[in-house]
C-alpha cells in the first residue's frame, strides 16, 4: 500500500489550499477528490466570492483576513493566474443593525481604513443603488472579490508542482485510524496509508464524518445573474468593477443580500443572492433547478436596491452551504483521533479565508498546533456545537 506523510480528503476550496501549503513545506502529500478541479457540485463555483476585512460577523476574524490577503497575492504569483480584484465593498444597513454597526466596530477595533456613508452619499457614489433613506453604510476600499474556480485550479496546479500527488475522480469511500497511530483511506480505486489525515469535505462532511454527529445544516442556496438596463444616467459602465463595489445590504428586515459588480461584461449580468435563507438538503438530493417563483422573489428584492436591474435573467445556479449553529467554522483535531484534522462548517462565509485555512491545516497536520488558529472560535468541541448535537439528536 502506498504510504504518505499526509492525505487530504477533498481537494476543494480548503483542501486545495491545504495540499498546497503541505507540499510547500516538503511533506509527501496525497490529495483525493471525487470530481475535477473547479467543479460545480460543492461550494466553490459561480465565478466570484466576496473578500472583505471589516467583518461584521466578529472582529476575531480580522487577523485571519489580513493573513489571507497575503496568501491571495502569493497564490496569484505562484500560479500566474488573476484571482483577486479589489474593487471596494459597501455594507449597507439600518443605523442600529449589525450589517452596519458590526462592520464599523471591526474596522474601528482593527484600524482598518473605512468611510461612513449615508443614503445620499451612497446614491451619489454608486448611481446604480437606491437604498432606503435612513440607511447607513461602511465603505471599505480594501474589499472586492476572488475567483473560486481559478483558486481551486491554481492551488491544485501549484501543489502538484511542489510534488503533491493529486487524484481527481477518485472518491473516498471510507477511512479509519490504524492501531499504529496513522490512517488508512479507501477509495473507489484503492487503499492508501498515511501518518496524518486532513478532512476537508465541504457539504459532504455529514457523510464522511458521521461519528462526530456535527450539527451542520446543509443548505441549498441560489445565485442569480440579472442583466441591468443601459440608461443615460446609469450606463453599463456604472456596474463594471472599475466603478462598482461588492456589497451586502439589509434594511427594515428585508432579508440580507450580497452581490458583485459586473465582472464579465454586460452579457454576464450582475450576480447577487440572499446571504441566508437556504433550504435544507444534501449533496445527493439537492434540487439543482431554479424555479420561476424563486427568480421572481429575488428580482423583487433586488429591485429594492437596484431600480434598473430590469433586464433578463442571464443564469441562476445552486450552491451548498454547511452551516453551524453559531455560524463559525469547525477547524481542529478530530476529537477521537489526534492524527486527523478536520475543517468544515464554513457557514457560507469561508471562501475569503482559503489561503489562511490552508496554512492552519498544514500547521496542525505537521506540528499539532497553529499560532494562526483562534483559541476557541472554531473548536470542534465548543459548547455551541455540543448544544447543536443534543438538539439534532432529539429532533
Ligand atoms: C451561494 C454561495 C455563496 C458564497 N459566497 C461567499 C462569499 O461571497 N464569500 C465567502 O467568503 N464565502 C462564500 N461562500 C462560502 C464558501 O464558498 C465556502 O465556505 C467554501 O467554499 C467551503 O469550502 P470547502 O472546502 O469546505 O468545500 P468545497 O469547496 O465544496 O470542497 C469540498 C471538496 O471535498 C470533496 N469531497 C467530499 N467528499 C469527498 C469524498 N468522499 N472523497 C473525495 N472528495 C470528497 C468535494 O467533491 C469537494 O470538492 C459562498 C458559498 C455559496 C454556496
UniProtKB/TrEMBL annotation:
One of its GO terms (molecular function) is sarcosine oxidase activity. InterPro entries: FAD-dep_OxRdtase, FAD/NAD-bd_sf, MTOX. Its EC number is 1.5.3.2. It comes from the Bacteria. Keywords: FAD, Flavoprotein, Oxidoreductase. Its cofactor is FAD. It is an enzyme of class 1 (oxidoreductase). Residues 5-364 form the FAD dependent oxidoreductase domain. This is N-methyl-L-tryptophan oxidase. The gene is solA.
Amino acid at each position: 500500500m502506498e504510504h504518505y506523510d499526509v492525505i487530504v480528503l477533498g481537494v476543494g476550496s480548503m483542501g486545495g489550499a491545504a495540499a498546497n501549503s503541505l507540499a510547500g513545506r516538503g511533506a509527501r502529500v496525497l490529495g483525493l477528490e471525487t470530481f475535477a478541479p473547479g467543479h460545480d457540485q460543492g461550494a466553490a463555483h459561480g465565478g466570484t466570492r466576496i473578500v472583505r476585512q471589516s467583518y461584521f460577523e466578529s472582529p476575531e476574524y480580522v487577523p485571519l483576513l489580513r493573513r489571507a490577503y497575503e496568501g491571495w497575492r502569493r497564490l496569484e504569483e505562484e500560479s500566474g493566474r488573476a484571482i483577486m480584484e479589489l474593487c471596494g465593498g459597501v455594507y449597507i444597513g439600518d443605523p442600529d443593525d449589525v450589517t452596519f454597526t458590526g462592520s464599523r466596530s471591526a474596522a474601528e477595533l482593527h484600524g482598518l481604513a473605512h468611510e461612513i456613508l449615508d443614503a445620499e452619499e451612497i446614491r451619489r457614489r454608486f448611481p446604480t443603488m437606491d437604498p432606503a433613506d435612513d440607511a447607513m453604510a461602511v465603505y471599505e476600499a480594501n474589499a472586492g472579490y476572488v475567483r473560486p474556480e481559478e483558486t481551486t485550479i491554481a492551488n491544485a496546479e501549484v501543489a502538484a508542482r511542489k510534488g503533491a500527488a493529486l487524484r481527481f475522480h477518485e472518491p473516498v469511500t471510507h477511512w479509519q485510524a490504524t492501531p499504529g497511530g496513522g490512517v488508512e483511506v479507501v477509495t473507489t480505486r484503492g487503499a492508501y496509508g498515511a501518518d496524518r489525515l486532513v478532512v476537508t469535505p465541504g457539504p459532504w462532511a455529514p457523510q464522511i464524518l458521521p461519528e462526530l454527529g456535527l450539527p451542520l445544516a446543509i443548505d441549498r442556496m441560489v445565485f442569480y445573474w440579472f442583466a441591468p438596463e443601459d440608461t443615460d444616467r446609469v450606463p453599463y459602465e456604472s456596474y463594471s468593477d472599475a466603478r462598482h463595489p461588492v456589497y451586502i445590504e439589509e434594511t427594515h428586515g428585508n432579508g440580507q443580500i450580497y452581490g458583485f459588480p459586473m465582472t464579465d461584461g454586460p452579457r454576464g449580468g450582475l450576480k447577487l443572492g440572499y446571504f441566508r435563507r437556504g433550504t435544507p438538503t444534501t449533496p445527493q438530493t439537492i434540487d439543482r433547478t431554479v424555479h420561476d417563483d424563486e427568480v421572481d422573489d429575488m428580482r423583487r428584492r433586488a429591485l429594492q436596491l437596484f431600480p434598473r436591474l430590469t433586464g433578463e435573467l442571464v443564469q441562476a445556479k445552486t450552491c451548498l452551504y454547511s452551516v453551524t449553529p453559531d455560524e463559525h467554522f469547525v477547524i481542529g483535531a478530530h476529537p477521537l483521533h489526534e492524527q486527523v484534522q478536520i475543517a468544515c462548517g464554513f457557514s457560507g462565509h469561508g471562501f475569503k479565508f482559503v489561503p489562511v485555512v490552508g496554512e492552519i491545516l498544514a500547521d496542525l497536520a505537521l506540528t499539532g498546533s497553529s499560532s494562526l488558529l483562534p483559541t476557541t472560535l472554531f473548536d470542534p468541541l465548543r459548547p455551541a456545537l455540543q448544544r447543536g448535537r443534543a438538539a439534532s439528536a432529539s429532533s
